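Field log, afternoon session.

UNIT: design team B
ACTIVITY: writing a sequence onto a fixed backbone
BACKBONE:
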């Protein structure tokens, strides 16, 4: 489990979810922008099942839960399939 947790945290950091916040211009920023647009301007909270909030919380605290793991898998799949708005798409 420790190896999985470290790998998951590394993946979160690579896509832009960090201990100090979401990195500007990263995949995480694009996912957050897409989530905000889809939700009328706000990002769904972790308590309400928000994937972006859960991923950022995990990166900030170093705590990986089953929910966060599932969120990461879904987010990575969406990002890999190009189902997010990149900065170059001018989606704002």
């Amino acid at each position: 489990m420790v190896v999985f947790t470290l790998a998951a945290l590394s993946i979160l950091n690579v896509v832009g979810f960090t201990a100090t916040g979401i990195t500007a211009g990263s995949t995480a920023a694009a996912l957050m922008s897409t989530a905000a647009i889809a939700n009328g301007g706000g990002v769904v909270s972790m308590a309400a099942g928000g994937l972006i909030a859960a991923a950022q919380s995990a990166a900030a605290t170093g705590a990986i839960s089953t929910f966060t793991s599932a969120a990461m898998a879904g987010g990575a799949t969406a990002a890999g399939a190009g189902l997010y708005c990149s900065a170059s798409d001018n989606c704002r």
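LOG NOTE: The mean pLDDT is 74.
NEXT ACTIVITY: expression trials, pending approval
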